[in-house]
Structure formats: structure tokens, C-alpha cells
Amino acid sequence: MIIDLIKLEKSPYSFNFTLAPDEIDLESESVNLKDDVSIEGTLSKRIAQVDIEGKIRVEGELECTRCLQKTGQKLDFPFAAAFVTEENYTEAKEAELKAGDLDVSIFDGARIDLSELVREQIILNLPEQIFCREDCKGLCQKCGANRNLIDCNCEEKEIDPRWQSLRELKFKNEK
User: Fold this and answer.
1) Is 111 within 8 Å of 2 (Cβ atoms)?
2) CA 103 to CA 118: how far, in whole Å?
3) Could you tell me the pTM of the whole model?
4) Is the CB of residue 96 less than 8 Å from the CB of residue 75?
């Protein structure tokens, strides 16, 4: 959804729309959007910048960090962003960034693409780690089997070569 700021008559402007999952390219194979993305918020046009605040809701399917199984995850988060034109953005190379400066984007002054903003906000708000369940055992380091589904016993079979001499000594003493 592109908002034309030149034709925008009133500020703040309220918006509420949905995007289909195929309209948002998250550039990740580990994340799939299952349902439409619901976006609502307000756009406030000021003299030097445009502020956008809102809320994004979507049902996603993410890979478990430990076992790589797909698991459902509800994403429901607020967002805030500010847009300034290039001439209003600081050009100082030695400028100190503040925490609020990270939410500022540069735009052409005429239009804002909310679809791109939504894509960016979803990527930024994805959890770093997600687990299919709290006690997920993950994948076996040796054979790659999902340890939640099968017990491969790889660790029991394999002996650290540094301890092999002691094991042989133990068997010698038992005879």
C-alpha cells in the first residue's frame, strides 16, 4: 500500500489494511507467513518528517532453532517509524546516533510504501530463537536425526578417544 503524501488531506491519517503472504518477501526459507498480515495504524504528517505508528498481526510458521521442525508462531507487535526527506536528514559524518535515530528512514517526500515498512518490521520483530516445545532435544550431532522422534544412541556408542586407554585398562583389570 502506497500513501501519496501530496494528495493526503488530513493528518493524522488512519489506515487499516491486509497484505497477502505472497506480497511480502521475507527472503528466508525458515519463515513462512500462513495467513494474511493485518496492519492498522496512523500516519502523522509534520513539517520536517512523517511519523507512522501501528500494530502488525500475522500467524507465521518458523523453524525450531534446535530441531528445525516447523512450528506455529503468532506475531503481534506494535511498531513506530519516522520518515524524513534527504535534505532534512543530517549529513554530518561524525554525528552521534541516538536510539531514536535508528527508526528514521529517508524517503523522497512524496510517497511512502507501507508494504516495505511492514516487511521490514516483521523481519526486525522475528524472535531470535524459537522452540517447538520447551524441552526440545534438537538434532543429533553425529547422525543428524531428530532426537524428539527417535533415540539414535550415537553418544552412547561413541567413546572419546582420549579415554580409550583408560577403558582398555579397566577391561584388563576385570579379567
Assistant:
1) yes
2) 13
3) 0.72
4) no
